[in-house]
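To whoever picks this up:

The parser on our side crashed when reading a file containing two proteins. I've narrowed it down to the boundary between the first structure block and the second sequence. Both blocks are reproduced below exactly, byte for byte. First block:
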Amino acid sequence: MPTYKEHGRADAEVIVETAAVIVCGAIGLDTSGESIPYIAGWGERNDVEAIRHYAETVDTIARTLESAVA
């Protein structure tokens, strides 16, 4: 799991929240009204760039969470 020490708070928040959006979407929950602005608010850099940079980490977390809720 990402830590603030490893990634800094802003990137860790982007990573974990993006994974949560993926999992919530997979089970039919729409969190875009809350989560997308939250993720964007944490971007020290462009949030899309941060998501791309950490895509593998986000995917690993999302798959782990999806397995837990399935």
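<<boundary where parser fails>>
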Amino acid sequence: MNCVLRKSGFFVMAILMGALICSVSAAAGDILYTTLGPGSAYDGTNGYFVDGSNYYDTVTADSFTLGSGATVANAVLALGNSPGNNNPVTLYIESNNGGVPGSITATLSQVGTILPWGNGSGGGLVTFSCSGAQCALAAGSYWLVAWEQDPNTQQVWDLAYQDQSGNVAFNSSGSPTGPWMAGFYSENAFQIDGASPIPEPGALLVLFSGLLSAGYGLRRRLLA
């Protein structure tokens, strides 16, 4: 009988310990939205310009939808540097305003350098990080807006996997807030990643107390 109790006790302890370990994890959460294909694939041979005023002064935007509220950790874009300077792109999450981008909700910062575009390379995947309360979004429709401030820099935002269609917007006025020309074009390649919240100390205390109570109760059974 004691053997059965010991085995059951170890099983319960293992479950509680696993819950404790998982609760303190702060790794990136689920993919909230993506136009990337299997293995993060995208069309590396076609794309839309994101560039400064010495080129086309183009600002490019793609729409995405969140089915429920979530906190954005980062966005990943397939970008390549066309001939010219290679200064960072600024990325915005903007509200939806009647089918075009509206007001700026969050500003994301580029991490790393954009690789050269051309010869089918498509550049590469570039991460843009989001931090602070601005990254907590309610369910609904949003726009991801890529803006190049430097007049001498020309970047290419690659198209999505198999060039799937969706709402895309452009302007050639060099403004991240429009005016916009929108249509049902081939989507750009990007992914929105969520963040896993770190549990509050009170939640960890409750879990740890439960672990101690279970251990104490098991010890009493074994000694009975």
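After patching the parser it read the second block fine. Confidence is low (pLDDT under 50) at residues 1-28, 200-208. The radius of gyration is 24 Å.
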